[in-house]
């Protein structure tokens, strides 16, 4: 059964619907991007069990199909009867992809921001190699050491939020003042452990097939962009999107990680704005 996402709105202008990732992160982690998109009404969704959205009754109510049900229902009810521009980050990009594949008439343009094109052992190997390649960076080395000695299950959602903030250098480029401030904010927000656990154990191993099936049904223009230093959805994933979606637009953000909207918010926003404006005139 579809759950009703909560929403935070920013700015004014044409609607851009943003679906956060994680899964399970508080949606406010995407706010650096919303602030960099003037001239748009940005509807930042709060997916099930995060932010102001209620948790599903069952701890396994976090399947990609459930998130897709929620997003499709929201677009039907709140996009003013017009196809919407849709952006998803990471896991949220997968949800956006599935919504655009299921209901092509609801989506005008699709932006896949730091979204993995495949999962399973191949993705794990690439991520581990990317992290090792940056192990000379002090914050990355500290995060890797913490990851090695951390128990599998934090005691509660607040503890998970604090842990993710400590691990954040793995997903950021070289730390700037902006990234440090964002990281401090992340530590104050609980994260949904049930959502993250379900994705990692159930959805991620089968992601290749999920993505291949979805792209067969896409009809809208697609932008895929990611950070050069992103171990989770970086250059190999960007190349995979280009192969899966001939005719799509791909952009690599230099010196940025998985949270490229934090490392380089204006570069990300510029790429998104250019894509939406260019394809709108085609």
From TrEMBL:
Gene3D superfamilies: alpha/beta hydrolase. GO terms for molecular function: catalytic activity. Residues 14-265 form the AB hydrolase-1 domain. It comes from the Bacteria. SUPFAM superfamilies: alpha/beta-Hydrolases (SSF53474). PANTHER family: HYDROLASE ALPHA/BETA FOLD FAMILY (PTHR43194), PEROXISOMAL MEMBRANE PROTEIN LPX1 (PTHR43194:SF2). This is AB hydrolase-1 domain-containing protein. It comes from Streptomyces mashuensis.
